[in-house]
Amino acid sequence: MIERKSDLARLEALDCGKPLDEAAWDMDDVAGCFEFFAGHAEALDKRQNAAVALPENFKCHLKKEPIGVVALITPWNYPLLMAVWKVAPALAAGCTAVLKPSELASVTCLELGDVCKEIGLPSGVLNIVTGLGHEAGAPLSSHPDVDKVAFTGSYATGQKIMVAAAPTVKPVTLELGGKSPIVVFDDVDIDKAVEWTLFGCFWTNGQICSATSRLLIHKNIAKEFIDRMVAWSKNIKVSDPLEEGCRLGPVVSEGQYEKIKKFVANAKSEGATILTGGVRPKHLEKGFFIEPTIITDINTSMEIWREEVFGPVLCVKEFSTEEEAIELANDTHYGLAGAVISGDRERCQRLAEEIDAGCIWVNCSQPCFCQAPWGGNKRSGFGRELGEG
Ligand SMILES: NC(=O)c1ccc[n+]([C@@H]2O[C@H](COP(=O)([O-])OP(=O)(O)OC[C@H]3O[C@@H](n4cnc5c(N)ncnc54)[C@H](O)[C@@H]3O)[C@@H](O)[C@H]2O)c1
Ligand SMILES: C[N+](C)(C)CC=O
C-alpha cells in the first residue's frame, strides 16, 4: 500500500470566541511571514552538511541546496500576502525568484519590489513581471531556465501550468481552489456557531480559497440555525469599504460579479431556494456589490454544490448522523479545508481525521498561521506552503 504523506493542519479555537474579536491572529501578517522565514533560513544553514547515521565504515552527508530560479505566480485575492508566502521562503532557501502577480492586483507586489530594493536586496534576486496570465505567466511556466513553478490560483490555471511545465520536467506546487465544508452539530452555542459559519463563508466576500461555503447542519437545530443566519445576513452592512462599519465591499471585478450572479441564477433554475441575497443591494446602484446569499434545497449534483463560486454564497444541507455528515463533507473534488463545530472534542477529532482536506478547523473557520503548513488535497493541489517542516 502506498500511503499518502501530506501534512495535515488541525487548528482548534480553544475558547471558540468571536471571529472579529480583537484579532489574536492576523491573516495579513506580511512582516511576521518574513520574520518566520528569516528564522528558517538560519535553521536551514545549520542543517547543511548534517551527518546521516549509517552502518559503521560508511558516511553520508546531507547537503541542502537552493533549487535555482523559481517562478512564483499568484492570484488577486490577498495579493501581497500570497506573494510573500512564496517570496519569503524562496529567498530564505537561497533561490532567485520571478514573481508574476495577478493582472487585477499588481500594485502592492511592485511596492514589495521597491521595499526590497530599499533594504539592499541585490539586483536580480527578486524580479517582478506584471502582465496577463497567458502573456506573462505561461512563458514562465514553460521556460527552460526556470527550475520550479510555485502557483496559487484556480484549478483551471493549475492544470495549464502543469502541462506547460511537463516538457522540461519542472517541479510545480499548486495551491488551488476549494469548496470547503463546515459541519455544525446540535450540541453547540447556536449564536457562536452562526457567527463562525457566516464569517467562514462571507469574510472578504467569500473571495477566499478556503471559504467554508458548504454548511452541513444537524437537522435538530437546522430551522433555528437557518432563521438566525438569514436574520444576521440581512443585517450585514454592504457598502463602500471606506464607509464606517462596512462589513462587505464590492467583489473584485465585473467578470467576478457576473460569474457569481450566474451561479445563483443557475442554482435557482436547478430547483434550489435562494433564502436571502444573491442580488445587488437596493441602496447601491453602482459597483460590483452582491448581498450575502444563503441557498437551501440543494441536491449534490447541482453546480452550486460542486463548483467554487468565490463570492458571498453559502450552500446549506441538513444531516442526521455523523457518517452522513462526513460523506457529504467529502462529496467534492476539492480538499483544501474544512471546519467542524461541536462541543464534543472526540467527535471533532474523528471528523478532523475523516474529512479529506489539508486543513481542518475545530470550533472556528479561517484563522491561518505561518507556523502551520498550508495546502490542499485532491484537486485543491499539492505541495505545502508555510509550516515548521
Ligand atoms: N489554495 C490557496 O492557498 C489559494 C489562495 C488564494 C487563491 N486561491 C485560488 O485562486 C483562485 C482565484 O484567483 P485568480 O482568479 O487570480 O486565479 P487565476 O488562476 O485566474 O490566476 C492566478 C494567476 O495565474 C495567472 N495565469 C492565468 N493564466 C495563466 C497561464 N495560462 N499560465 C500561467 N499563469 C497564468 C494569472 O495571471 C494570475 O497571476 C481561486 O480559485 C482561489 O481558490 C487559492
Ligand atoms: C490562503 N489564504 C487562506 C490566506 C487565502 C486564500 O484565499
From TrEMBL:
GO terms for molecular function: betaine-aldehyde dehydrogenase (NAD+) activity. One of its GO terms (biological process) is cellular response to anoxia. Its EC number is 1.2.1.8. PANTHER family: BETAINE ALDEHYDE DEHYDROGENASE, BETAINE ALDEHYDE DEHYDROGENASE-RELATED. PROSITE patterns: ALDEHYDE_DEHYDR_CYS, ALDEHYDE_DEHYDR_GLU. This is betaine-aldehyde dehydrogenase. It is found in: Peroxisome. Its main location: other. The keyword Iron does not apply. It catalyses: betaine aldehyde + NAD(+) + H2O = glycine betaine + NADH + 2 H(+). It comes from Aegilops tauschii subsp. strangulata. It comes from the Eukaryota. Pfam families: Aldedh (PF00171). Keywords: NAD, Oxidoreductase, Peroxisome. One of its GO terms (cellular component) is peroxisome. The lineage of its organism: Eukaryota, Viridiplantae, Streptophyta, Embryophyta, Tracheophyta. The active site is at 175. The keyword NAD applies. Pathway: Amine and polyamine biosynthesis; betaine biosynthesis via choline pathway; betaine from betaine aldehyde: step 1/1. Belongs to the aldehyde dehydrogenase family. Residues 2-388 form the Aldehyde dehydrogenase domain.
